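target protein:
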Amino acid sequence: MDELLGKKTPHSAPAEQAVIGSMLIDSRCIPEVLEHLKADEFYIKLNRDIYETMFAMFSYGQTIDPVTVLDQMKVRGVWTDNCESYVAEIMRVTPTAANVLEYAAIVRDRALLRRLGEAADEINNLVYEGTGEADAALEIAEQKIYALRSGRNVGGLMPISSVVQNVFDELNEAASSGNKIPGLSTGLPDLDSTILGLNKSELILAAGRPGMGKTSIGLNFALYAGLQLGKTVAIFSLEMSREQLVMRLLSRAALVPLKNLLTGDLSPQQWREVSDAAQALAAADIRIDDNPTLSVSDMNAQCRRLPKIDLIVIDYLQLMQSSGSGHNWSNESRTQAVSDISRMLKIMAKELNVPVVCLSQLSRANESRQDKRPQLSDLRESGAIEQDADVVIGLYREGYYNRESENPNLAEAIVLKNRKGATGTVELNWLPEYTSFSSVERRHDEY
């Protein structure tokens, strides 16, 4: 159709041929090329078939040269009568493999232009069909552009061979990194060992009654990721102001009681500690938005515009607006609205490919029980929340209910749901003066 309209589909036949020719001339460049280029970025079908054949052969450790590749094309059923002469011609016009990555960059650039054109056509059709609201159309348009920017396709059937290769890449990365957990560390080793860290595309729910430390554990995760791991963290606070949040982050980072910070009653040593912590925090890539009327769409749009994002923390779910989600819940129950929000949060985690930690309020149901530890059914307006979440952590402190308890500062992070493994209770220390959590210090004889 584009050719009929006088449009030329972006592609470079010489660059595609040069990439394949380089791989056939010098097999040492194959790993680098496979790392930078995907088969669907080739425009000419025969080039794509040859590249996919070499990809499969490399994955199985087979020798790659013109003879073996042509033989495998017959096995794979992509052989045509002109394949032999075509491969010979490619070998003839490719003098060296030295510039293969430059050729690959040209192929990728043309593929991106094609996808951008396809996305533009889809957005154009969406606009002129006249169906749906402008906000919904804008959300779809931003999704498509973000997917292109991050180098991913939205939807569509993908061959399992590509997925297997992605999984192997992740396994190799995990093995070479030496980390015992696949995700971002929470900074709480016992919790990490249970939930295996905060993993990409996961929705992690930290739930509790007021005063149990929901905001505190969310800030724990954010502070450790931003300060200790050097990650980019976005915090959306619908309850507290930016200044209140930073005050709490300073208290934890400097190990200076929050009360002293709020009153300004600081010793010279505490001033030095706060100053050092403030410098470290200022250098960290932590972003904070305290707009109380944010919707999931607003958060998603802001995160898409960041150069990179590694962790999102939201405080808290029940305060969020359901507007901007493509639905109008004015006549629906709040339960339905919260269910819709939780579903959109999971979609956001998958689209951005980052862990999303969302704090959530628990209902009063536990107050009437003898054992007040949280259960999944205690999630307020739960609807689909427990279904959408990959991990649900219930926070409990016996000292909150019983001031005479043996250890009033012992807290429990109860893993109520865990798609990656076991559930169970992780003991933590509650640090009331810093409104924060730490790992329980254990004696040697307790191991």
User: Anything to note?
Assistant: The mean pLDDT is 80.
